[in-house]
Amino acid sequence: MRRPIAAAVITALLLAGCHPRPTPAPTPPTTIPPTPEVCGNCVDDDANGRIDYEDARCCPHPAALEAASVTVVPSSAGDELTVNARFPAGALTEPNPLLDDVTVQVRAGRRSVLCGTIGHQFWSKSGETYRFRPRGTPATRGLPETFVRVLPTGAVAVRVESIRPGLATLAAAEWRVTLRIGDGCGSGAAKASGTPVPE
């Protein structure tokens, strides 16, 4: 009796080995959603090399900046930085810093030189010129003196003045200026000039 039972067991095992085992279903790849760019925090959140309003996430319909320029002049108090840029006529709809916050971003190569938002409550107006003057309060600390002027042609000129240490060595870098007034924004390369550091 034992031999037929043993033979049956062996036959069953051999037959089981002839059938391929089912292939397990592939595990779907785990996808991590990209980090979205947070507008106004001066951080490249999505790590694409563009900060805030340089990024299409924050500025989906950018207006070209005309004649953007950067000048760096060394001084005993630090390097004097002057930025001039202009939005062409019609690029911005009713720009008014008294009502709209203004964001200023200036970059030299990969270094962020200026980045901040000036709230509408900190602006004053004289004639056609809007002016922000830092007051030393926590809300304005570190922001540059800024002028916005609506020209008779409808173009909008922006001038930024600040003192920052160590900028003279960046005069030859590739500069980029990004500005936002309300819902209007734009970014563009800037021509740089500077005064040689005195020996």
Describe this structure in words.
With 199 residues, this protein is mostly beta strands. Helices cover 9% and strands 37% of the residues. The chain has a single domain (52-194), classed as Immunoglobulin-like (Sandwich). Strands 4-3-9-10-1-2-8-7-6-5 form a 10-stranded mixed sheet, with no helix packed on it. The mean pLDDT is 86.
Helix content: under 10%
Shape: globular
How is the main sheet built?
A: 10 strands, mixed
User: Which strand-content bin applies to the residues?
Assistant: 35-45%
Number of domains: 1
Structural class designation: mainly beta
Q: What's the helix-strand series?
A: HEEEEEEEEEE
| Gap between N and C termini | 109 Å
CATH topology: Immunoglobulin-like
How many E strands? 10
Task: Tell me which CATH architecture applies here.
Answer: Sandwich
Report the C-alpha radius of gyration, rounded.
30 Å
What is the overall number of helices? 1
